[in-house]
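User: Please look over both lines:
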Amino acid sequence: MEKLFKDIYKEHAEMPYIAPQYEEELYKKPIAKRQMERTVEGFLPGHIILLWRISFGTFLTTSFRHKYFYTTYGIDADKELDMLTEAGYVRIETAFESLGHLPAGDLKEFLKAKGVAGLSKFKRSDLDEKMAEQYTEDELSSLFEVRGYALTEKGKALLEAHPEIVDKHPRKNSKL
């Protein structure tokens, strides 16, 4: 099938990543040529869409890597996320920054372990404040693994430089 894909994508600027689980789908509906054309900075549209997705503030180390990275943009999302992180466009949030991704019940359990009483009266902001009083970053980082991803200034600038790529990304129809 590799030779077949080389024939299908011979007119593309570069060969897309072919995820094994989507081979059949990519054979029937190939990735568009424009998705394999790099920006002046050297990034593929899939990289820009990955930055856009991270910019929502909900992309986590545990987040599902959407199928469109593989079938529409021709990138290996995990590998490219590592590259964007290493290149300084994306960073992994600290444990304290990632607290917002946890349910309040988890924070109450962490605080209960430190002997904090009266937790039933605490609002979310109170829990966050008390966590900062009771835990160091090192202590907190050992309690849970989930972390959020965030754009750096460099990542924000790259995303802002390419609104045309984001504008072409399909959106779900929302009812007004």
